[in-house]
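Sanity check

After download, print the first record. It should look like this:
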Amino acid sequence: MHNLGLQKTITLIAIILFLVKMTAWYITGSVAILTDALESTVNVVAGLIGVYSLYISAKPKDADHPYGHGKVEFISAAVEGTLITVAGMLIIYNATINLIHPHTIARLDYGIILVGSTAVVNFIAGTICLRTGIKNNSLPLISSGKHLRTDTWSTLGIVIGLGLIYLTKITWLDSAVAFLFAFIIIYTGYQIVRTSIAGIMDEADIKLLDNLVALLNHNRRENWIDLHNLRIIKYGGTLHLDCHLTVPWFLNVYEAHEEVEALGTLVRHEYGDSVELFVHSDGCQEFSCRICSKKDCLVRQHPFVQKVEWTIANISKDSKHRLAVRE
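Expected structure tokens:
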């Protein structure tokens, strides 16, 4: 429940920072500061949604949800990304109104101090949130961390813009700064929505697959003749890995199970106990001899020709590997 406790803390911080930014907007009347405050409303709402999604995803498997409740984290991230995008559009609207009907900005020095202090807090909270989310493979925490870090840079940019307005007295810069960071905010929202949709649709994680294939190639055992039909599905912080492992046909059930356990131990050592493995063991066939490097095999029917280097392309196919050799 560590993730849930952190998300609650992040939500409380978001509420406090929102109040600080609204105070800064009230005393200055700056639309750029209003931009920052509007984004903070998203932090608050997204934080509340994140707390709820982590609470649901932490529930154990049941008869209605045999794979657990982790998918709710993708829905939570999609909602957060959508809210971020809407906030960006609202900022563009307010900045446009301010250009058409400009108003006087007052007490910018106080506004700069208040908003600048929120950037420091956001950066620290976002860094902790992002690191914890990556460590625990929690999409809500990763999304919140990225959002808070983006909020930090946009706030710093707004502080710089306010500083220029304070020095030059050019009021239209207020709207210009708001426009610039509105587009940054919208792009961030798009990225979060894109990631969440990829998770809901079980899109292949190429980076994860690359790392896994490299791990298996580097630690390949003699009895691991072939590996195919490998698939990875994410359910929140849990990874479900399915594959078919080809072992020598003459191994008994206990020996084949040992090879499967060795594969599972290797993967869990790298990715933690949040990995669930479903490994089907196949017995080798006559054509497997040419890619089998097992020494002193008493039933070998063909000489070893070439070891098949596993790649994302060939390890994902639902067929055993073989060499195209003319008889």
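If your output differs, re-run the checksum step. Summary of this record's structure: The mean pLDDT is 81.
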